[in-house]
Design brief:
single chain, 204 residues, five-stranded antiparallel sheet, flat
Protein backbone atom coordinates (compact mmCIF):
# COMPACT_ATOMS: atom_id res chain seq x y z
CA UNK A 1 0.00 0.00 0.00
CA UNK A 2 1.32 3.44 -0.97
CA UNK A 3 1.47 5.91 1.83
CA UNK A 4 2.63 9.41 2.55
CA UNK A 5 3.71 10.35 6.04
CA UNK A 6 2.87 13.63 7.63
CA UNK A 7 4.72 14.36 10.88
CA UNK A 8 3.62 17.10 13.21
CA UNK A 9 3.59 18.13 16.82
CA UNK A 10 0.16 18.93 18.20
CA UNK A 11 -1.27 20.13 21.46
CA UNK A 12 -3.52 17.19 22.21
CA UNK A 13 -4.32 17.37 25.88
CA UNK A 14 -4.27 14.41 28.24
CA UNK A 15 -6.34 14.82 31.35
CA UNK A 16 -5.85 11.89 33.69
CA UNK A 17 -8.56 11.32 36.23
CA UNK A 18 -6.07 10.40 38.95
CA UNK A 19 -2.74 10.72 37.17
CA UNK A 20 -0.45 13.74 37.22
CA UNK A 21 0.18 16.23 34.42
CA UNK A 22 1.85 14.88 31.31
CA UNK A 23 4.42 16.21 28.89
CA UNK A 24 3.36 17.54 25.50
CA UNK A 25 2.83 14.73 22.98
CA UNK A 26 4.94 13.96 19.94
CA UNK A 27 2.27 13.24 17.35
CA UNK A 28 2.75 11.56 13.99
CA UNK A 29 0.10 10.87 11.37
CA UNK A 30 0.57 8.48 8.48
CA UNK A 31 -2.08 8.95 5.80
CA UNK A 32 -2.90 6.01 3.56
CA UNK A 33 -5.18 5.56 0.60
CA UNK A 34 -8.85 4.58 1.03
CA UNK A 35 -9.62 7.18 3.71
CA UNK A 36 -7.42 5.60 6.36
CA UNK A 37 -4.76 7.09 8.63
CA UNK A 38 -2.56 5.84 11.47
CA UNK A 39 -2.12 8.20 14.43
CA UNK A 40 0.78 7.63 16.82
CA UNK A 41 1.02 9.70 19.99
CA UNK A 42 4.23 9.38 22.04
CA UNK A 43 4.50 11.07 25.43
CA UNK A 44 5.81 10.62 28.95
CA UNK A 45 3.24 9.56 31.53
CA UNK A 46 3.59 10.20 35.23
CA UNK A 47 1.38 7.54 36.80
CA UNK A 48 0.49 6.43 40.28
CA UNK A 49 0.62 2.76 41.24
CA UNK A 50 -2.54 0.75 40.63
CA UNK A 51 -5.65 1.34 38.57
CA UNK A 52 -6.43 4.75 37.11
CA UNK A 53 -8.21 6.33 34.16
CA UNK A 54 -6.50 8.36 31.47
CA UNK A 55 -8.45 10.66 29.18
CA UNK A 56 -7.08 11.58 25.75
CA UNK A 57 -9.04 14.58 24.54
CA UNK A 58 -9.26 15.95 21.00
CA UNK A 59 -8.73 12.56 19.38
CA UNK A 60 -10.13 12.14 15.89
CA UNK A 61 -13.94 11.99 15.90
CA UNK A 62 -13.69 9.22 13.29
CA UNK A 63 -11.38 7.03 15.41
CA UNK A 64 -11.77 3.26 15.19
CA UNK A 65 -11.85 2.35 18.90
CA UNK A 66 -11.10 -1.32 18.28
CA UNK A 67 -7.69 -0.39 16.87
CA UNK A 68 -6.51 1.57 19.94
CA UNK A 69 -3.22 0.42 21.43
CA UNK A 70 -1.42 1.93 24.43
CA UNK A 71 2.03 0.63 25.24
CA UNK A 72 4.10 1.56 28.30
CA UNK A 73 6.42 -0.45 30.53
CA UNK A 74 4.59 -2.03 33.45
CA UNK A 75 1.17 -0.80 32.30
CA UNK A 76 -1.81 -3.04 31.50
CA UNK A 77 -4.95 -1.81 29.73
CA UNK A 78 -8.09 -2.78 31.66
CA UNK A 79 -10.73 -0.99 29.62
CA UNK A 80 -11.02 1.60 26.89
CA UNK A 81 -13.97 3.69 25.73
CA UNK A 82 -14.48 6.31 23.07
CA UNK A 83 -16.85 9.01 24.31
CA UNK A 84 -18.34 10.53 21.18
CA UNK A 85 -21.55 11.79 22.81
CA UNK A 86 -20.77 15.48 22.43
CA UNK A 87 -22.27 18.20 24.61
CA UNK A 88 -25.08 20.03 22.80
CA UNK A 89 -28.33 21.62 24.03
CA UNK A 90 -30.36 18.74 22.56
CA UNK A 91 -28.13 16.07 24.11
CA UNK A 92 -28.21 17.85 27.46
CA UNK A 93 -32.01 17.82 27.41
CA UNK A 94 -32.13 14.15 26.37
CA UNK A 95 -29.92 13.19 29.31
CA UNK A 96 -32.21 15.16 31.65
CA UNK A 97 -35.27 12.99 30.97
CA UNK A 98 -36.69 11.90 34.32
CA UNK A 99 -34.78 14.61 36.15
CA UNK A 100 -35.66 18.06 37.42
CA UNK A 101 -34.60 21.31 35.77
CA UNK A 102 -35.46 24.94 36.36
CA UNK A 103 -37.46 26.87 33.77
CA UNK A 104 -36.85 30.62 33.82
CA UNK A 105 -39.22 32.87 31.87
CA UNK A 106 -38.78 36.60 31.33
CA UNK A 107 -41.82 38.84 31.01
CA UNK A 108 -41.29 40.88 27.80
CA UNK A 109 -43.23 43.78 29.30
CA UNK A 110 -41.44 44.45 32.56
CA UNK A 111 -38.40 42.15 32.33
CA UNK A 112 -39.31 40.26 35.50
CA UNK A 113 -38.27 36.63 35.72
CA UNK A 114 -40.28 33.71 37.07
CA UNK A 115 -38.68 30.38 37.91
CA UNK A 116 -40.44 27.01 38.07
CA UNK A 117 -39.11 23.55 38.82
CA UNK A 118 -40.00 21.05 36.09
CA UNK A 119 -39.48 17.35 35.46
CA UNK A 120 -38.41 16.47 31.92
CA UNK A 121 -40.79 13.76 30.65
CA UNK A 122 -39.54 13.47 27.07
CA UNK A 123 -37.10 15.11 24.67
CA UNK A 124 -37.67 13.49 21.29
CA UNK A 125 -39.05 15.83 18.63
CA UNK A 126 -39.83 18.33 21.35
CA UNK A 127 -39.49 18.79 25.09
CA UNK A 128 -42.36 17.70 27.35
CA UNK A 129 -42.32 18.90 30.96
CA UNK A 130 -44.32 18.26 34.10
CA UNK A 131 -44.66 21.44 36.11
CA UNK A 132 -46.66 20.94 39.28
CA UNK A 133 -49.95 19.28 38.30
CA UNK A 134 -49.77 20.20 34.62
CA UNK A 135 -47.92 18.86 31.57
CA UNK A 136 -46.43 21.44 29.25
CA UNK A 137 -44.58 21.44 25.94
CA UNK A 138 -41.54 23.70 25.83
CA UNK A 139 -41.78 25.80 22.69
CA UNK A 140 -40.93 29.20 21.30
CA UNK A 141 -44.05 31.25 22.04
CA UNK A 142 -42.41 34.66 22.12
CA UNK A 143 -41.63 34.58 25.84
CA UNK A 144 -37.86 34.48 26.50
CA UNK A 145 -37.28 31.13 28.22
CA UNK A 146 -34.17 29.35 29.35
CA UNK A 147 -33.55 26.02 31.04
CA UNK A 148 -31.10 25.67 33.93
CA UNK A 149 -29.46 22.30 34.59
CA UNK A 150 -27.79 21.39 37.87
CA UNK A 151 -24.85 19.64 36.22
CA UNK A 152 -23.44 18.23 32.99
CA UNK A 153 -23.73 14.42 32.75
CA UNK A 154 -20.37 12.64 32.89
CA UNK A 155 -21.17 10.85 29.63
CA UNK A 156 -21.32 14.10 27.65
CA UNK A 157 -18.06 15.55 26.41
CA UNK A 158 -17.20 18.97 25.06
CA UNK A 159 -14.73 17.25 22.70
CA UNK A 160 -14.25 13.67 21.46
CA UNK A 161 -12.46 11.83 24.27
CA UNK A 162 -10.72 8.47 24.46
CA UNK A 163 -10.85 7.07 28.02
CA UNK A 164 -8.38 4.33 28.91
CA UNK A 165 -8.40 2.56 32.29
CA UNK A 166 -4.96 1.15 33.06
CA UNK A 167 -3.19 -0.66 35.88
CA UNK A 168 0.39 0.44 36.62
CA UNK A 169 2.77 -1.84 38.51
CA UNK A 170 4.42 1.12 40.23
CA UNK A 171 4.31 4.89 40.44
CA UNK A 172 6.56 7.14 38.43
CA UNK A 173 7.23 8.51 34.94
CA UNK A 174 7.50 6.30 31.89
CA UNK A 175 7.42 6.63 28.12
CA UNK A 176 4.22 5.62 26.39
CA UNK A 177 2.83 5.33 22.88
CA UNK A 178 -0.82 5.56 21.90
CA UNK A 179 -1.78 4.50 18.38
CA UNK A 180 -5.06 4.09 16.52
CA UNK A 181 -6.57 4.09 13.04
CA UNK A 182 -8.96 6.77 11.90
CA UNK A 183 -10.80 7.92 8.82
CA UNK A 184 -11.65 11.45 7.80
CA UNK A 185 -8.09 12.62 7.13
CA UNK A 186 -6.77 13.47 3.69
CA UNK A 187 -3.61 14.79 2.09
CA UNK A 188 -3.11 16.71 -1.14
CA UNK A 189 0.03 18.04 -2.77
CA UNK A 190 0.28 20.70 -5.50
CA UNK A 191 3.38 20.97 -7.68
CA UNK A 192 4.83 23.75 -9.84
CA UNK A 193 6.84 22.67 -12.87
CA UNK A 194 9.55 24.82 -14.53
CA UNK A 195 10.61 23.89 -18.06
CA UNK A 196 14.14 24.84 -19.15
CA UNK A 197 14.01 25.14 -22.97
CA UNK A 198 17.79 25.17 -23.33
CA UNK A 199 18.32 22.02 -21.27
CA UNK A 200 15.07 20.44 -22.33
CA UNK A 201 14.48 19.54 -18.69
CA UNK A 202 11.51 19.86 -16.38
CA UNK A 203 12.07 20.71 -12.72
CA UNK A 204 9.49 20.28 -9.98
Amino acid sequence: MNRRALLATAALVLAAGSAHAQTAPDLSVTIYNSDLALVEDARDLNLKAGRQRLEFKDVSAAIRPETVSLSAAGVTIIEQNFDYDLLTPDKLMEKAVGQQVRIVRTNPGDGKETTEVATVLAANEGVVLRIGDRVEVLRDDGVPTRVIFDKVPETLRARPTLSVTVDADKAGPRASKLSYLTSGLGWKADYVALFDEKKGALDL
